[in-house]
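Many introductory courses stop at the sequence. We go one step further.
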Amino acid sequence: MIVRAVYNNTNVLFVDFAPPQWYNLFDTTLTERSDKMKELLHKDEKKVEYLELIYDLIFVYIIGRNNSLLHHTSDGKIQGEMMLAYVLCTLAVIQIWNFSTYYINVCGKNGLREHIFLFTNMFLLYFVAEGTSEHWQTHHTQYHAAWGLILLNIALQYVIEMKGKPRSSWKIHILVTLIAEALLVFAMIPIYKLTGKDFSYVPIVFGIISASIPAAAENRSDVDFAHLSERAMLYVVFTFGEMVIAIAGYFKGSFSFNNIYFALFAFLIVVGLFLSYGTFYDKIIDREQQNSGLVYMFLHIFIIFGLNNITTSLEFMRDEQIELLQKITFLLISFVMYYIFLLLTLRFAKLTCKLRLSFYLRLAAITVSFAALMILSRKQMYINIAISAAYVFVLYAIIYRIGKKNSESVHH
């Protein structure tokens, strides 16, 4: 920095602590200087590239493969082994998407290297998808080999990106996390062959915890939070797409009051869930903030996981072979998970959206009442599905009111 004193054409003294590239500001009029300053300080929002959308298509395919795992039931109950495989496969795939998206957000330039990087991951994800099946044990090696290679591929991009540049502690941390998790994933292959037990939850839990550690450094100018939040929103939309396909089963059969009734309420549930997320994204979340985004992405792992569970739950509700209490419980847990993690994103809300404890207590009371009514009416499916839709729209009305209040505050 060079300190210098200059008089502008209105004879007002300025002391300049600016970097050299700003010095030409002093050779302009006040209006021109203001325009140039805005141009220098303004950071263009990173746009979502077509390459990222193509990359997301493989995840749309895998979502369907993951959800199909829970359709293998025994004596009216979900098999414990299939439930575990479903949870692990879903979380592993969402985590892969998170790591890829975060790299593209911070370092991606939509160049040749990014194309090779993402298409390589897409190719490997087909092996992951193929291993997501009822007979996952026979595909254990290929699943974990592909999973580990994907993590190493992402790590390699960070290595190339940091070459010849100043070291960044948080990038190094992410790099170490990726390599360590990849090694843990590879280690699962011989462990499973030797013991017959799968410990795939270890690398998943490690990755989630380790990647969230540098989130304490909340403000980082190299992270485009607007782009990151848009990418998370698009994954949520793809997940809703799977839900839209799933409820198509409610429209099958004769054109009768019974079919129309259940189809209508299933459709309303999906609409209410989508509108709640949409209100958060459009009206509540401060997308212009400077933030590491790691916690926001972490919360979306469970928002998306909850939506996947709701999709499967809605399919279960039509299946008379599945035990009533079990499918009602699964639906309740799915709803609660979705709304808990959606509400946790309020930490990224605009200042006008900060809420009191009484708000959360009211939501808890509504949810407890909903759960009680669902369990009591579990044998009355007409009542059950209506209560579910009512619960979704009651929460949407509350969320909408928050969003509206925030919009009015911003305009004033």
